[in-house]
Amino acid sequence: MMGDAAPVIEVTRLKKYFPLPRKYPGQNSLQVHAVDDVSFAIGRGETLSLVGESGCGKSTVGRAILGLIKPTAGEVRLDGMRIDHLSAGRLRPLRRRMQVVFQDPFSSLNPRLRVREILAEPIANYALARTRAEFSARIAALLEKVRLPADAAGRYPHEFSGGQRQRIGIARALATEPEVIICDEAVSALDVSVKAQIVNLLADLQDELGLSLLFITHDLAIVEHLTHRVAVMYLGRILELADRRTLFALPFHPYTQALLSAVPVPEPGARHRRMILKGDVPSPVNLPSGCRFHTRCPHVFARCRTEEPLLRKVEKAEGGTHYVACHLETRPGTAAA
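Given the sequence above, the corresponding structure tokens read:
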């Protein structure tokens, strides 16, 4: 689903099921299908945004890539090397190359440590500095990269605003000189104006350092100015995958169209048709047959209820950059909206 260049991260048929405790003896074990057959790749210097409603499995994908949880099935590769099956000891040296920025910039920072100590910890873990002067120089450079003053090093997390704390989280992620950063709802807890500042900072850092980003979010408005490609998830599966321009201009899947219709219009009074989905998201424990979106889809027809669509290239797509899991294109007399 990418060009000729080898991807830095490659996820193939990833699955993660969480077993539920049995209520009664002899009861069959139930499972939460958090991630169910997800595949994508991220190129060097590329941002892939993984979007969808809360509970669709996007954060679980990020945690599986990082090795924080073990997948039920599938493969994760870093620079062509399979890493999902590695033990904690063998995975540890590779963690330097993959870092994460968490959603809550307060709970993800140790309140008992000064910023200097927070940033020094990953540097010390991978022996990236040895003398006090080297540590100080690296910490000062990290603070400068995320546009915080040098005196921030001597302060505690509670002395900063939410946006400043998230900058500290980004600086900590950069401390090991990673190739990949997974941003797990990294701006969702911030005010609108601060969100824009953090997104701009991430874009600048990507240009400067050549980072690959997996940007996990439920907010399509945020990713429009940051991402190269977008993958839309629903109930553990990717329903649509396209480059940014194609997805925002010509969304094919009805679910993607509904998500985009919920994005606020920047011009007051501009014509805008909101697409309201009926019903609730089905339980990931008891998935619907066929297309898992058919219970809420305004264009549902018979095939949707019995056959699950595969993620395939849209026939009219140019350059092979648009994929969708939907039966609509094969329905006689039906075209994308």
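The chain is about 30% helix and 20% strand. Try to locate this feature in the token string yourself.
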